[in-house]
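Need the bound structure for adenosine-5'-diphosphate, inputs here:
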Amino acid sequence: MSSIIQLLPDHVANQIAAGEVVQRPASVVKELVENAVDAGATEIKLIVKDAGKTLIQVIDNGKGMSVTDARLCFERHATSKIRQAEDLFSLHTKGFRGEALASIAAIAHVEMKTKQDQEELGTHIVIEGSKFVSQDVAVLPRGTSFSVKNLFFNIPARRNFLKSDTVEFRHIVDDFERVALAHPNIHFMLFHNGSEMFNLPQSNLRQRIVNVFGGKTNEKLVPVTESTEIMGIQGFVGKPEFAKKNRGEQFFFVNDRFIKSPYLHHAIMAAYEGLLKDGSQPSYFLYLDVPPHTIDINIHPTKTEIKFDDDQAMYAILRSSIKHSLGQFNVAPVLDFERDASLDIPYEYKEKESQTPLIQVDANFNPFADEKPSRAFSSSSGGSHSFGSSFNSGYKKQESNASWESLYVGLKTATEEIDVSEIQFESEEVTGSLFGENEVETAGNRTYQIQKKYIVSPIKSGMMILYQERAHQRILYEQFLTNITMHQAASQQLLFPLELHFSQSEMAMIKELRPSLENTGFVFDAMTTEILVISGLPVNVAESEVGLLLEELIHDLQGELPESSFSQSDRIAKSMSRSLSVKTGAYLTEKEQESIVNSLFACKDPNVSPFNKPTFITMGVEDLDKRFAL
Ligand code: ADP
Ligand code: MG
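Answer from helper R.:
Posting the output first, comments after.
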């Protein structure tokens, strides 16, 4: 019988291996930047075009390579970092597998220029899909420059699988930040499509964190230091009051390598116990120093997971040292007996000038108009304006409306019933769907809130149960989408412009979104690399919510969800509707409940939330009869 097993040719083996090492442009960035760090560079410049799909270039001033090494580095399992298996237990470098360059060269067009300090001339190599195209001697500065073009040119399936530039660039920034945070003594720069996104000069750790995440970060940081036999801890944790809704700023480094550890994360959360609002996430930047022989970093191909010999002890040490630091920070002012704490101005107000209270006048208010809640919506099947002026703006300022309305309490009559049939008439989509012929006609005039989550309302055929949060999301979503596409949003002018601080990469994102955001009603006065000055807001956004709203928006748009195939406007509208909707757990007045019911059925697509979840269900009398027949 003939034998059928063959050894794969090198370029095929490399291409297969590349699948593991290079998932997306960010993987290339990570490998090249780490190589530059390993080469002892003090300055590393990263240049990216089209989120790395067109070009990724890394220029370092490290030790460079000899002619032979320059050729050898593209071979698989070619590394200068370990020689024998034991070396794995005393690693001080980022790389050690010797497969990154071979993998990258197998699936892209790579050009490398490198020169060692003591040499007169350097080497210039071009390699495409594992094939050496050229090798020359060249006059070069000290160090190495890699440029990687046309990533995945020979694996179209991979190329097509890449996400939008926004998402891919976010991944690059993530990896860039991780290396930059681990090495504050190296000057890092990042350029994207010709503009400078980061310029991080050599500095200490605290300055590096502040340079990456913006000037405001400084006041949020509480230092943590601990030194035990098992490990040393250096770094900072965020003050609890600055905790965020997402897990953006959480970093663990072990021996200067970024790692993920759900177990140690848990230790940190345990240290914050009782200090955080529900579901909010503290920032942390923690650098653990562990004897190399007590860890195994080899258990994950991309090396972000790690195995510790004694993770239980680490858990305990980490938790108690963070608790200690937070305690010191919290307790410090109380122990300061010299000062009368009651005289202290609350921190946030220290630098604020006093503000004249805003007087809000509703120009449209006509005391003689015979107002019914449903009226505001009756003309709203296509227009967003009536939403804005009635339901949405009323939402946040409900108290102020409520105060004059309370004068009329005694005059409330049964005429204030929800005229759903009128809505049904207005927005035809509703008729065909869940409600049969004229079914929506209300049997009564009341809505009830259940568990601060559902709104129940009787309808002719039985009853209807709305999911308050989802229903409100739908209402806001359609409103924002109309505003963005029709450019017709109203905006509330702020008396004192609002100054918000963002990191450089967040600001880049806001710049990209600016036109759409302005269509929702935002007015931006000025934008520097870190500060955003806002002088107008969409009518339904309260001043206190803006920071969180934009933060969540950036987070949503950078994430993989919602699907990148949707338009940017759609994703903005989705994100904002999720941020601003009334949440489960929010008490709603009867008027607010009615308002939600009415506005929902004036929507084009009231049946589902923007995230495709049902917004309401109905229960017919027959259903109820069945239940009682049991
Ligand atoms: P590894 O980093 O795991 O050793 P790589 O494929 O990333 O494997 O790199 C192979 C070798 O090429 C490295 O061990 C190093 O000797 C050399 N090398 C790669 N990049 C650089 C650089 N920027 N400067 C100097 N040498 C480099
Ligand atoms: Mg490497």
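Comments: The pocket of magnesium ion (ligand 2) is lined by residues 31, 34-35, 95, 100 (CB under 6 Å). The longest strand covers residues 491-501.
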